[in-house]
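Researcher: We're teaching a course module on how sequence relates to structure. For the next exercise, students receive a sequence and then see the predicted structure as tokens, so they can try to spot secondary structure elements on their own. Here is the exercise chain.
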Amino acid sequence: MEIADLLTPRTVIPQLRVTGKKQALQEIARRAAVITGCGERQIYEVLAERERLGSTGIGRGVAVPHGKLSELNRLFGVFARLDRPIPFEAVDDQPVDLIFVLLAPANPRSEHLTALAMVSRRLRDRTICEKLRGTDKADALYALLTDRTESHAA
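Model: And here is the predicted structure for the students to work with:
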């Protein structure tokens, strides 16, 4: 599995303008509804419920909200680069400006854990995050996220 299996250029939001966590999750849920065929409210509720268990802000300005939906038959990802950082109750108490939402089928297979680990590993790379923050072009963001080589052209 690779990030390109989760993400498409259409599911990259290069300049999301939001003022808080709830608004960010609502806007991403709205866009995810179009690509997954699931209801916007349903997606938001799954993400919000996961946040109630504990923030998915993993530190250094990155969050990886995730949830399971019974209507899905495969994994979906949506990446958003925020136009300005927002409070997210992250583990390091720093605001978040890079959000990768992962939506998984409700089946008991562990592929969502594999995907979550892969996305988290990718977004813990300081160099990649610097480059993601350095562009507001969807195609460049997609290329950075899906590039399998160690050196990335921005």
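Model: If you want an answer key for the exercise: DSSP finds five helices and six strands in the chain. The longest strand covers residues 76-86.
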